[in-house]
Write a structure and sequence with these properties.
Helices cover about 85% and strands about 0% of the residues. With about 230 residues, the protein is mainly alpha-helical. α4 runs parallel beside α6. The protein starts with a helix and ends in a 13-residue tail after the last helix.
């Protein structure tokens, strides 16, 4: 086999391995978020320990992928779209790790609420709905990365506005609860932190989608210019 073809084939294999590891990490984070949402609804606080343990695996994968990216850049010196892919992966794994941290926060908040003998459902707050929306965003962002699909990535980016709006609505409802009945303050604050963590998971999914657009099209859309006022 021609040496240059051999090197090219090996490079493609290395890139494919990187993408597989990112999706493996993404699958773990999805599992974390899904388990945390389920614990919120069911009160199965025993799952909190498993969520925390999964977080360690996510952190280990982030370190391993970062190391692989550094070695690949040093060894292969990728250019153009390949270089964008490697850089994009380093940013995606950071957002995945942070989304996993938010899932851990949700799980710990859920444990505090149930151990205090409270039931989040008593508050009638739509945390479950916003959490499922954020989880859907994360799933679609990972799917967009797997398929390198900028259209699906743009869909994820647009969905973030709805999650942000729902979060603000939840905040208003909880503030009303606390004003009407001070006995609800402690649990309301825990629910606010949980909803905030969910909203941040949506933000990280949006970031991943933006990285996908950058990888595929070379466009950095993270900070669009503000329209000048007339």
């Amino acid at each position: 086999m021609n040496e240059s073809l051999h090197l090219s084939s090996q490079f493609d294999e290395d890139l494919g391995g990187l993408r597989t590891h990112v999706l493996q990490m993404g699958g773990l984070v999805e599992t974390q978020v899904s388990a945390a949402i389920e614990a919120y609804s069911s009160g199965e606080v025993g799952s909190v320990k498993h969520i925390v343990e999964t977080d360690r695996k996510v952190n280990d994968l982030e370190k391993a992928i970062d190391d692989d990216c550094a070695h690949l850049i040093a060894k292969r010196q990728p250019a153009a779209s390949d270089l964008r892919l490697v850089f994009g992966i380093t940013k995606i794994v950071t957002d995945l790790e942070r989304a996993g941290d938010e899932a851990k926060k949700i799980a710990k908040g859920v444990r505090r609420i149930y151990e205090a003998g409270q039931m989040p459902s008593q508050y009638g707050i739509g945390v479950r709905h916003i959490a499922e929306a954020a989880l859907g965003m994360l799933h679609n962002a990972l799917d967009a990365f797997a398929r390198l699909d900028p259209q699906l990535a743009e869909h994820v980016i647009r969905a973030d506005a709805d999650v942000d709006t729902e979060f603000k609505s939840i905040m208003r409802q909880l503030i009303t609860h606390m004003m009407e009945d001070p006995r609800t303050i402690t649990t309301s604050i825990d629910i606010i932190w949980i909803a905030r963590a969910v909203e941040r998971i949506g933000d990280h999914a949006k970031n991943i989608a933006e990285h996908v657009v950058f990888i595929v099209e070379g466009r950095d859309i993270r900070h669009p210019p503000k329209e000048s006022k007339a």
